[in-house]
Amino acid sequence: MSTPASSLIGKVWNYAHVLRDAGVGYGDYVEQITYLLFLKLDYETASVGRPSLIPPEYNWASLVRLDGDALQVHYQHILAELGRLKEAQQATILQTIFNKAQNKITQPALLRRLVGLIDSEDWSGLDIDIKGEIYEGLLQKNAEDVKGGAGQYFTPRPLIRAMVQALRLEPGQTVFDPACGTGGFLLAAYEYLSGLPLDRDQKIFLREHTLFGVDIVDSVVRLAAMNMYLHGIGGLHSPIRAADSLAADPGTRYDVVLANPPFGKKSAIEASTSTENGKASREKVVYERDDFIATTSNKQLNFLQHIKTVLKIGGKAAVVLPDNVLFEGGAGETIRRRLLHDCEVHTLLRLPTGIFYAQGVKANVLFFEKRPASETPWTRELWVYDLRTNLNFTLKTNPLSDKDLSDFLACYNPEARHGRQETERFRRFSYDELVARDKANLDIFWLKDKGLEDSLNLPPPEVLAREIIADLEAALEGFRTVEEELGEARG
Predict the structure, then answer these.
(1) 0.90 cut: is pTM over it?
(2) 110 and 192 within one domain
């Protein structure tokens, strides 16, 4: 990381520890940084002739001159008022950043120090790459705070870069993430495309019409929108929306989908209903869509169906999915068989444990392309790369790096995907082999686990514990699925 960025991250993040002692969590701190940084940037750019997005009575100058209770009251007033700006078309980015905004810093002295910290820097004078790097650094530090739960929105950057490189994005394509978190996939796509030779029109299209993201969590949408803004993406109109991706077919189709849908079993929502006696009750509402192959409460299976829907014919997808999507019966089997038939499902990357902030996760990346309707299946063969067996990673001592994924990319062979060769970790399985497996199970492995053969060379205890937890959770999910299927059969 460049010196200006790392220095400023250190300065800004050191103050986070002070606020945490005062009861302000890291996630809340990054959120407050987002509000204040947007106010400061808007004021700086307006000072050099660009139109301000913020009314003068709510701008940075109106805030920075105050102190004590007056500062506290005015800051709360700014957040409330900017969150209400919905009529003006140019307020779209404001609405995204300040929607449901709240002040979490209740001590005026601490707020004054944070305002002073932001005010001491000339943010608009920093290069866009540096501003973006600073914010990405803050988001990563926030993700590292495992207790805060923010890690579920942060996919390892080496994995994201490898997925983007494998898809070989092209200028003029549209890229979508239906569970965008803080925007990591979209930024990686932007950086990849920015490195290609682009003419003026292609550069404008890249900044304003290429990248799109949705997330259901308002606070995360705010962080993603700010991340895009600091990288010069979207301009006045944020490419990030707050919505439930699974609620309905959005109608729009995209060339590329990159995603790591949130981990967890349930995607059902609950709605309040009234009974005859006037008492409120909670009713579970499962997503039922005409475009879905099967109705299920499995969140990742629903995201997989949604992604298939929003892809253009010929569109490409790379999706991070947990192991249960590969082997779960019932709706899982139905969806897998249809996906193999309707799409060209060509590559599966089995990921190692220890690379996500959510502990014990066993996940994979599924690569496929959507094809037109056909009586014969589009999947001819599935190539599986095993990056899991006999490989151990940890977030602190042995984190996943770009180098660890270089052999996968070489085997994937993005430039000539149909000229692949089998290796020890890369194997080919025909369509007939796949559909002949029990429940069309794609949980395929062939390498011997050396740890099971050599008890003197076991992985570290924390790795073993994490894998045991993952296996138990996978088994529990299986029992839940059986329970639900029995319940539906009785109902």
Answers:
(1) no
(2) no
